[in-house]
Amino acid sequence: MIEISSAATARIKDMLLEEETPGLFLRVGVKEGGCSGFSYGMGFDDEQHDNDKELSIEGLKVVVDEDSLKYLNGLQIDFKESAMGGGFTIENPNATATCGCGSSFRTATDAGKPSEAGEC
Fold it and tell me: Given the DSSP bridges, would you call strands 60-65 and 25-33 parallel, antiparallel or unpaired?
């Protein structure tokens, strides 16, 4: 369903340790907005909901809400180092169009609701 590279998993685990808050996990989701119609959400959370699906990826607890699942099937998250620092990259096989910043997308069947300003 969702793949997270070893580099991304290691970086996320390091970030979780830096938070020093027990019970935190990675939440990945989609919300309407951004310049293409949907935008990705990825952050730490400590509260699960009834409509959440829990995944375990290389010992990392990942939670996705049920509404986001259809947009994230096959999603690949990676972490790349560069001369300017490092960052997470997202490859989504469901996206038929993305914006320039790569954090907003639409699918063949859903366009979402782009933000009025058209911002990423």
Answer: parallel
